Amino acid sequence: MKSILVYFSDIHLTGKKPENEGAVIKAFCEDVKQQLISLQYNDAHILIGGDLVQAADDTTSYYVFYDKILSKLITYGIPAEKNNKCSWQS
Fold first, then answer.
1. Which residues are 6's β-sheet partners?
2. What does the alpha-carbon distance between residue 67 and residue 65 come to, in Å, rounded to a whole number?
3. Hey, which end of the chain has fewer CB within 10 Å, N or C?
4. Is the pLDDT of residue 30 over 60?
5. Average pLDDT, the chain
6. Helix, strand, coil shares, percent, the chain, to 5
């Protein structure tokens, strides 16, 4: 069984700099999409390390993160499981 792990870290998304953040997010998502198309695999998972958003107290930033990044990755076939730890079963 081949699994793909998409790992990214320290995004520090603000949602307030579309000219900068938007370009990086678009390129990242497009790169992931192209790799998923070109590789053979059984399943794919997202691993996120570090800070997702710039201001942890700004809950709006998390919604922006979901809308701008995670929702796109989900449309590429990566499941939307919510888990804060990694668990593998053989």
1. 46
2. 6
3. C
4. yes
5. 82
6. 40, 20, 40
Tokens 């499981």, residue?
Answer: 81
**What are 39's two structure tokens?**
């590789």
Structure tokens given for 79: 């499941």
Cβ atoms 53, 61 nearer than 8 A: yes
Using the structure block, give the residue that is written with the tokens 């989900």: 74
SS (H, E, C) 34-77: HHHHHCCCCEEEEEEECCCECCCCCHHHHHHHHHHHHHHHHHCC
Contact yes or no for 12/54 (Cβ under 8 A): yes
Task: Provide φ and ψ at 16, rounded to 5°.
Answer: -115, 5
pLDDT in tens, 37-60: 999 988 888 888 878 788 878 888
